[in-house]
Design brief:
It contains 3 helices and 7 strands.
Length: 144
């Protein structure tokens, strides 16, 4: 079975504009250290945390409709909003995308915005972030 979270993360990682903002810092968990002397993502660089947040299961078709929580981290609200804006642009362009994952070729049917942005601050890592929710539909079986 294709992992729907990996599919979305790999798909986001292959977008050149998003990579220009976040580099390779698009993952299921952020890796910003709480202390300055610990290795991990630099607080000077933007990053995206993408995690599953439910969804309504498809009982009769081999599809995974998922809900995602995405946090766009940056050292300013402006930079965090640039990453969020790119997600919005991607959601308007996406229709049936093939994505190479560790278990084969996945099919991402769509990626849609399901909430507006919330501008927040993570006091543990001292970074601003924008949190928003998204819906995606991923085929369970590998495509050929």
């Amino acid at each position: 079975m294709i992992d729907p979270l990996e599919t979305v993360i790999k798909w986001l990682q292959q977008d050149a504009a998003l990579s220009a903002l976040a580099g390779e810092r698009i993952a299921a968990k952020h890796r910003y250290p709480e202390r300055v002397d610990v290795s991990g993502w630099s607080r000077d660089d933007a990053g995206l945390m993408v995690r599953l947040d439910g969804g309504i299961p498809s009982l009769y078709v081999a599809l995974q409709p998922i809900r995602l929580e995405i946090r766009c981290y940056a050292n300013s609200q402006y930079l965090a909003s640039r990453a969020w804006q790119r997600l919005v642009e991607l959601s308007r362009e996406t229709e049936r995308q093939a994505v190479l994952t560790s278990t084969g070729s996945a099919l991402l049917y769509w990626f849609h915005q399901s909430s507006g942005p919330s501008m927040l601050h993570d006091s543990q890592i001292d970074l601003d972030f924008i949190m928003s929710f998204w819906d995606a539909l991923v085929a369970e079986q590998e495509i050929t």
